[in-house]
């Protein structure tokens, strides 16, 4: 009985924490209702590795926060309505003109709300940077192989975030209902109409009747401020949960292994850096927004289906789609059974873009299948050490880049004094052939860099010091690496291609054959890391030269005896 | 263990890594280098020199004070540089000073915080161990067990009638939502049929955009171009929708420059031709007319149409020529349409038939 | 030849300002009848304006000499044109004033189109050549001062500019690309007179906007809108060339992302 009453007593008056004063009281209050102390114990000393490229995802997150903050301000003034009103605001060359309430309220935000134009420009510049940092972050994850097991699913989540961010961008770009975005919507309408079977009806339902209708701005607004942000916030949360579960990758280096994380704890150092990053990113964006105009809708005027401006382009992140439409040669359209029109001049770009996007989304699974690698990877690759992946990435960038650049073909033509026809023809060539050239060149560069690393690991830096030997011979003294420097150059894995092996019934399926061929292609032309044996052998070979100047090499010379030379660099499997 | 080989599929280079090496084999030489471990910690100036420590502390606090000054300046700018009606300069100055002072406040906090973190906080690198992402064997076994118990207790596998009818119900439940979306657009309309017609019909005068005043044939001199809408369009219930289909370009060429195909001989009036302004690719206004080459250019995707050859495509992604509007002159000398376009204008769509191409 | 029946433009004029009055139909009918008679004169430049001032014979003679020395090689001694240059019969004084006054003529070398260059002649020389060309065969004259003022209706001018001009010259007058290396030039810094003359004469591949298409008042409104845009400061700050999303995207990548990457490098760099 006494024990029971003791327990009750404990429940009534829990032990006091040592922290006293207001802070102690508040934290006690919160913890007794939320168990937050357990969360803090779990999270607050988690270690994060330091590298500038690891900050890109975080910058994207802060851009999103800035977009939410500035966007909320804008919603207080914006009217997502296509009802016609007469503009009576401060911008003289539009006064008295009939326009939609959306356009008029955007003009009022710009000219008649103090700080309104600043907020619009913060919102828009932050959106451009949001997607730019997302893509740079994706490139970092791709080229360092940080998408490998166990992070494949998080790559897919990040990919979805990128797509949703572009959706946010496009819906937001359309909201002011100005001439530029109206023509952008018209292109989207044309694209949708070109989709076989369902296109006409999809466009009809989306616009609530014929283009442009009176519905689209309100609908895009709901997507822009409700549905898409909600999904993005949910996915960012999931992205972060996985980040905590997996812990961040790190680059190989002394003391850094696949089984640990080396860096700074969230509290205090990393927390300070994170908070600082938020303020820095916010500050940079506000400074840009205060100094540089973006989307001057007062120049474009209200949407009217008849006019159009030279240089009608989407925001940069949709540029690749616009460019893909420009790259189509004439005549890609045919009629099926004399009844149905198939617009390949619309479908071909859609297919080209879809292929690229699907390849990006599934790349972790594709590479995992080709390599057959089932292990967990927490060490980021140096791009040069996986030449095939790096080369594939470069090819993908050129493929995307050709479409992207094509979207500004008219401005390239005027600014570099070329004809737009030649610009398009050149970009059509780059689009088809460029990826192969980029693949080949990048792979050679990677292998050359690996060879240079090998040389350096074996012989050290070129010190630039020329020494004349007693025999009259001139040699350059090589400065050997210390063990930490050397480790950076040799800490990577050499992989063997997959072997074709019969299955349980003793057969080799064609599927496995393809896989083996792909695996050989992926791992061909590889360079093995330097081994101790090789280092010693190399010192043994010219020990009589370097040893004379570098006393610490004598030791390795002695150790050479009896050691076989390590695996020489592979050039073909 | 060197490199990133914590898993199982790793062989030593000197072991038999032939046929029995599993897929995805990483090869590690027997005499691979060992990880030398963390390099010795390097002390910062602020760790070694108390004076430097205090100096950096002062710099950081100064930055924070500077941020306060900027914030106050932003509020001051808000009042000191108000927006004056009809004065773009005031908007510019308001944006500039608000922007720069807010940016200054934010950047000062950012620089200060990061500098504090880098120079003054303890910077010893920490090492945290990772764990395999998969659960331990025990956890996994227990979770499988839980599912089995739950299955047994609920009868989810055993009661297949219950389970299958539930799945059926769940599949059917979202279906009504699909139908609810039908009313996104008005009922009783066939979009494909609407796309096939415009506001042009016999006798409708060609009028200037946007004033809506009619155009006489004599107004259209050689080398000029008129942006045209049907007269009376502004009375239309669906002004923008009709304008989006009916916009027309009117040009005059020398009659001998026009290559008129059979059946279209009467569609132009003394060298005056009218073509739809809506691109047959994705629908931008094809408004750029070059009066010497007689080419029309679409500024969106650079499709080019040759007016001498009945607006045939000569460059760019479009396939079909721009539809021609047959025109003539009424008794008062005004240009009028003979009929609607003989084919749908604008981008292609699935239901657009092939027999329009006259 | 302005059409008096034209109404002030707005996006939907008659919605707001009431239906056309019955009188307008009568006026329209009357004018129609008058003009039907004159519609035989289709190929003549019907909108040829009167020369602003009567040219003195002295000026015409001076212009003829200058023409013979500088222009006749391509345009022919009697303005009839050669293989190297088009005929100048009927182009009027406005065309000469525009082409020579903006430095486009005399041509320095052949290219897709004649670019704007430093002007080669004095005001009087240009006037003299214009007088001479106009004296041989009439054409659009140099515009009157009243239509070159920036006191028109900027709203109307901006709307007319968007419909008639922006597809080539860009809504902000920043210029744009045409086919085969040709381009529509940027309009900033172009004088009202030259803008007007370009509209009336349609230099090179630019279409002609005669007075029946855009009345002198319309042209004045367009000039008013352009000059407002040019003289009023950009409300949002530097304009990045007014080239639209391409310039903005380029700026975001180079300077925005550049600044942010530089900051991340600083944030993660080891402190000394």
Describe, in plain words, how this protein is organized in 3D.
The complex is a heterotrimer of chains A (573), B (358) and C (272). Chain A is mainly alpha-helical and 573 residues long. Chain A has 3 domains: 2-44, no CATH class; 47-381, Cytochrome Bc1 Complex, Chain C; 447-566, no CATH class. Chain A is built from 22 helices and 11 strands. Chain A has helices at residues 2-12, 21-34, 36-43, 56-75, 101-112, 116-143, 152-174, 179-193, 199-206, 216-246, 266-291, 297-300, 319-326, 344-371, 387-406, 409-415, 420-459, 483-490, 510-523, 532-541, 543-549, 554-559, and strands at residues 47-48, 84-86, 98-100, 250-251, 260-265, 334-336, 340-342, 379-380, 461-468, 474-479, 494-495. In chain A, helix 7 (152-174) packs antiparallel against helix 10, helix 7 packs antiparallel against helix 14 and helix 16 packs across helix 17. With 358 residues, chain B is α+β, with helices and mostly antiparallel strands. In chain B, strand 13 and strand 14 form a beta hairpin. Chain B folds into 3 domains: 1-32, no CATH class; 50-126 and 135-182; 193-337, 3-layer Sandwich (Rieske Iron-sulfur Protein). In chain B, helix 2 packs antiparallel against helix 3. Chain B contains 8 helices and 14 strands. Helix content of chain B is 33%, strand content 14%. Chain C has a two-stranded antiparallel sheet with strand order 1-2. Helix content of chain C is 47%, strand content 1%. Chain C starts with 12 loop residues before the first helix and ends with a helix. Chains in contact: A-B, A-C, B-C. The interface between B and C is large, with 58 and 61 residues. Strand 11 (494-495) of chain A pairs antiparallel with strand 2 of chain B, so a sheet runs across the interface.
What's this entry about, in short?
Chain A has 573 residues and is mainly alpha-helical. Chain A has helices at 2-12, 21-34, 36-43, 56-75, 101-112, 116-143, 152-174, 179-193, 199-206, 216-246, 266-291, 297-300, 319-326, 344-371, 387-406, 409-415, 420-459, 483-490, 510-523, 532-541, 543-549, 554-559, and strands at residues 47-48, 84-86, 98-100, 250-251, 260-265, 334-336, 340-342, 379-380, 461-468, 474-479, 494-495.
């Amino acid at each position: 009985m006494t024990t029971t009453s003791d327990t009750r007593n404990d429940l009534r008056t829990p032990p006091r924490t040592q922290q006293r004063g207001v802070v102690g009281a508040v934290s006690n209050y919160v913890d007794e209702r939320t168990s937050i102390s357990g969360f803090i114990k779990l999270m607050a000393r988690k270690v994060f590795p330091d590298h500038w490229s690891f900050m890109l995802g975080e910058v994207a997150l802060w851009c999103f926060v800035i977009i939410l903050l500035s966007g909320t301000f804008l919603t207080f003034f914006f009217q997502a309505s296509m009802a016609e009103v007469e503009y009576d605001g401060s911008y003289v060359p539009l006064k008295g003109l009939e326009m939609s309430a959306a356009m008029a309220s955007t003009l009022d935000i710009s000219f008649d709300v103090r700080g309104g134009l600043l907020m619009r420009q913060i919102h828009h510049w932050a959106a451009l940077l949001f997607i730019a940092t997302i893509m740079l972050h994706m490139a970092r994850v791709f080229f360092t192989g940080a998408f490998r097991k166990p992070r494949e699913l998080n790559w897919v989540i990040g990919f979805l975030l990128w797509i949703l961010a572009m959706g946010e961008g496009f819906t937001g770009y359309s909201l002011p209902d100005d001439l530029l975005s109206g023509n952008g919507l018209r292109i989207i309408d044309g694209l949708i109409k070109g989709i076989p079977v369902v296109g006409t009806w999809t466009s009809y339902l989306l616009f609530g009747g014929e283009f442009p209708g009176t519905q689209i701005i309100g609908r895009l607004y709901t997507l822009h401020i409700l549905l898409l942000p909600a999904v993005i916030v949910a996915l960012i949360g999931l992205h972060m949960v996985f980040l905590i579960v997996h812990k961040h990758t790190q680059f190989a280096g002394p003391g850094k292994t696949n089984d640990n994380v080396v860096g700074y704890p969230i509290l205090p150092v990393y927390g300070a850096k994170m908070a600082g990053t938020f303020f820095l990113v916010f500050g940079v964006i506000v400074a840009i927004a205060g100094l540089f105009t973006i989307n001057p809708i007062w120049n474009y005027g209200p949407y009217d289906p008849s006019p159009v401006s030279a240089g009608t382009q989407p925001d940069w992140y949709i540029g690749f789609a616009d460019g893909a439409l420009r790259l189509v040669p004439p005549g890609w359209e045919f009629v099926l059974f004399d009844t149905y029109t198939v617009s390949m001049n619309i479908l071909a770009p859609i297919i080209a873009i879809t292929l690229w996007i699907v390849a990006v989304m599934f790349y972790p699974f594709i590479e995992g299948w080709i390599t057959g690698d089932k292990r967990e990877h927490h060490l980021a690759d140096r791009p040069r050490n996986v030449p095939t992946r790096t080369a594939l990435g470069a090819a993908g960038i050129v493929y995307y880049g050709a479409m992207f650049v094509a979207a500004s073909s008219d401005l390239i033509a005027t600014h570099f004094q070329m004809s737009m026809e030649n610009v398009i023809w050149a970009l059509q060539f780059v689009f088809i052939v460029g990826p192969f050239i980029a693949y080949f060149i990048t792979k050679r560069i990677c292998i050359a860099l690996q060879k240079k690393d090998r040389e350096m690991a074996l012989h050290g830096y070129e010190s630039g010091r020329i020494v004349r030997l007693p025999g009259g011979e001139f040699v350059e003294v090589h400065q050997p690496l210390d063990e930490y420097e050397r480790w950076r150059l040799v800490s990577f894995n050499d992989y063997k291609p997959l072997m074709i092996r019969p299955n349980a019934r003793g057969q080799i399926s064609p599927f496995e054959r393809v896989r083996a061929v792909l695996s050989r292609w992926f791992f061909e032309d590889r360079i093995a890391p330097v081994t101790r044996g090789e280092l010693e052998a190399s010192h043994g070979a010219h020990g009589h030269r370097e040893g004379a100047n570098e006393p610490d090499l004598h030791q390795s010379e002695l150790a050479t005896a009896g050691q076989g030379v390590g695996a020489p660099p592979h050039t073909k499997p | 263990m060197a490199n990133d080989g914590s898993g199982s599929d790793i062989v030593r280079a000197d072991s038999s890594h032939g046929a029995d090496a599993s897929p995805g084999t990483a090869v590690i030489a027997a005499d691979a280098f060992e990880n030398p471990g963390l390099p010795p910690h390097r002390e910062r100036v602020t760790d070694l020199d108390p004076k430097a420590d205090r100096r950096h502390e002062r710099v950081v606090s100064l930055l924070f004070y500077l941020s306060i000054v900027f914030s106050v300046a932003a509020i001051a700018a808000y009042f000191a540089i108000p927006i004056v009606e009809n004065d773009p300069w005031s908007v510019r100055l308001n944006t500039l000073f608000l922007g720069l002072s807010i940016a200054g406040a934010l950047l000062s906090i950012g620089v200060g915080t990061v500098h504090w973190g880098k120079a003054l906080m303890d910077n010893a690198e920490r090492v945290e161990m990772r764990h395999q992402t998969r659960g331990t064997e025990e956890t996994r076994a227990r979770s499988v067990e839980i599912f089995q118990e739950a299955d047994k207790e609920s009868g989810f596998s055993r009661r297949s009638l219950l389970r299958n009818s539930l799945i059926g119900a769940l599949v059917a439940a979202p279906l009504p939502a699909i139908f609810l979306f039908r009313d996104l657009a008005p009922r009783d309309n066939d979009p494909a049929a609407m796309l096939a017609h415009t506001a042009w019909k016999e006798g409708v005068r060609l009028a200037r955009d946007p004033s809506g005043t009619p155009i006489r044939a004599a107004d259209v001199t050689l080398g000029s171009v008129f942006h045209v809408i049907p007269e009376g369009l502004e009375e239309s219930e669906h002004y923008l929708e009709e304008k989006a289909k009916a916009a027309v370009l009117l040009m005059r060429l020398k009659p001998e420059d026009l290559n008129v195909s059979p059946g279209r001989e009467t569609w132009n009036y003394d060298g005056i031709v009218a073509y739809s302004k809506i691109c047959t690719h994705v629908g931008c206004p094809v408004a750029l007319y070059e009066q010497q080459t007689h080419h029309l250019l679409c500024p969106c995707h650079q499709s080019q149409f040759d007016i001498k050859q009945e607006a045939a495509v000569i460059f760019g992604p479009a396939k079909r020529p721009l539809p021609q509007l047959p025109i003539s002159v009424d008794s008062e000398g005004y240009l009028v349409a003979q009929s609607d376009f003989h084919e749908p204008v604008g981008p292609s769509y699935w239901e657009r038939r092939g027999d329009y191409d006259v | 030849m302005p059409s008096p029946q034209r109404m002030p433009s707005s996006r939907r004029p008659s919605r707001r300002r009431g239906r056309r009055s019955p009188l307008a139909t009568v006026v329209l009918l009357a004018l129609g009848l008058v003009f039907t008679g004159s519609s035989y004169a289709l190929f003549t430049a019907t909108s040829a304006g009167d020369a602003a001032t009567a040219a003195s014979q002295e000026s015409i003679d001076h212009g003829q000499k200058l023409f013979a020395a500088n222009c006749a090689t391509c345009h022919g001694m009697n303005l009839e044109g050669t293989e190297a240059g088009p005929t100048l019969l009927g182009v009027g004084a406005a065309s000469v004033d525009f082409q020579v006054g903006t430095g486009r003529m005399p041509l320095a070398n052949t290219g897709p189109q004649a670019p704007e260059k430093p002007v080669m002649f004095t005001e009087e020389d240009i006037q003299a050549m214009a007088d001479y060309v106009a004296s041989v065969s009439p054409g659009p004259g140099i515009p009157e001062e009243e239509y070159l003022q920036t006191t028109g209706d900027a709203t109307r001018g901006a709307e007319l500019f968007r419909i008639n001009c922006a597809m080539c010259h860009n809504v902000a007058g920043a210029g744009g690309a045409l086919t085969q290396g040709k381009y529509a030039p940027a309009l900033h810094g172009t004088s009202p007179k030259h803008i007007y003359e370009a509209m009336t004469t349609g230099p090179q591949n630019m279409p002609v906007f005669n007075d029946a298409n855009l009345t002198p008042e319309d042209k004045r409104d367009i000039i008013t809108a352009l000059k407002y845009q040019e003289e009023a400061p950009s409300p949002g700050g530097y304009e990045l060339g007014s080239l639209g999303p391409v310039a903005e995207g380029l700026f975001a990548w180079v300077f925005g992302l550049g600044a942010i990457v530089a900051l991340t490098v600083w944030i993660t760099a080891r402190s000394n």
